[in-house]
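Mods, move this if it's the wrong board.
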Amino acid sequence: MKQWAERLCLAVGGALVLLTLIGVFSSAPTQEPVDHELIVRQLGHDYLRTVGDSTSRIPPISEGANEALILRTGSFVAYDTLAKVARQTFRQAGITSGYTLSIEDCQSGNILLGSVFPPPVEQYVSAPGETACIGRDQEDHCANIVIRFQRNEKTSKNAMNWLAGGLGIMLICLGFFRPRNDSVDPVVKLQSGVLQITPGVSLDETALKLKTPAGTDTLTFREAKLLAFLARRPNEVLPRERIHDEVWADEGVITGRSLDVFVSRLRKKLAGVDDVEIQTVHGIGYRFRVNA
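Not the wrong board. Structure tokens:
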């Protein structure tokens, strides 16, 4: 992986993790989950008590389309009174917004009257905060009470936060990870700061000295770095891009011929050494062949 891609992974991953931590620590404590069916039954009870009915049985709550909770009263429902009681009942349960309240015809299921809580402020031409259908004339129809609660947005936001955080950690790990084989072949050993490539070939990375049976050569810093990189990965096919990233990363952009030029120089210095050869792998890169 190129260094710019690694840095990008680290930057994006770090930003996602930071945003996740900010979202977690800045969010308000979540309330305990509430049983919406019990709240709707409580609404039915409070409404009947308000209209003077303390004996009628409250029917079971049924589920309708789009996660609606339906209280089938089987009688007339005064919508203005219902809306007022609903505010009080839901407020006591800790719900002040995020629901719709309507009454529907018992037979046809058509909506007779209904409102969104809290009332919309900008979407309609009515006065800001005005509740729809309040004060409207109402015919004497059998009506069912229908409540729809919005999904818990907080839970979905938290899930998204943790998902972003997990993705950020994955990107950070990817930024630090480079597929490589750093295992040292048995014939390549480091002794007293000297890389022993074969019994007759060694590289002193500090002194920039290459020793072969033919004698000792002084290398440039880049030649020594390239040879050390190849020698630590004997008999492994190394792509050109990977070699560029490892050996020339601190120089920024280089020409495509730079690697070939340095390989040619090293080949001349290793000429005559039977156990070591820098082989060209066409279309890919190079292999540093070392015979045990």
